[in-house]
């Protein structure tokens, strides 16, 4: 399942070249991903943190294809994939799309860790919501 949210480039995100600064692309992707994780996967970051479960990123890669400009309206997509090596991590493929053209694409990889420290894992309630998720093709 692919999830999508719509955004408009904020004035403060524009650099001296008149384009959106590169650090904001992952910012918009994070906002979309967090909504996806909460709304679709049923994992509430605040509630889980209060219960001692932290969802954290372990890595990401991003490809910038085209630049967004001031006041551009765009969509951010998010889809979840399980790990091909059966490791306790999730992969989120995301794109930023404007007028049907991909502006940026990325893969974010995350896992959960106990707040008190310990090994990465995926909580059972989260795993239960991944039954239709495809495996990441590497």
Average predicted local confidence, pLDDT: 96
Helical content (DSSP H or I, runs of 4+): 10-25%
Low-confidence stretches: none
Q: Helix segment count?
A: 3
Question: How much of the sequence is in beta strands?
Answer: 35-45%
Give the assembly state of these chains. single chain
Description of the molecule:
The chain is an alpha+beta fold and 138 residues long. It contains three helices and five strands, in the order βααββββα. It has helices at residues 24-39, 45-50, 124-127; strands at 3-8, 53-64, 73-82, 90-98, 101-114. The chain has a five-stranded antiparallel beta sheet. The two termini are 19 Å apart. The model has no long low-confidence stretch (mean pLDDT 96).
Features:
3 helices, five-stranded antiparallel beta sheet, 138 residues, globular, alpha+beta
Task: Describe how the helices and strands are arranged.
Blueprint: E1 3-8, H1 24-39, H2 45-50, E2 53-64, E3 73-82, E4 90-98, E5 101-114, H3 124-127
Antiparallel strand pairs: 1-3, 2-5, 3-4, 4-5
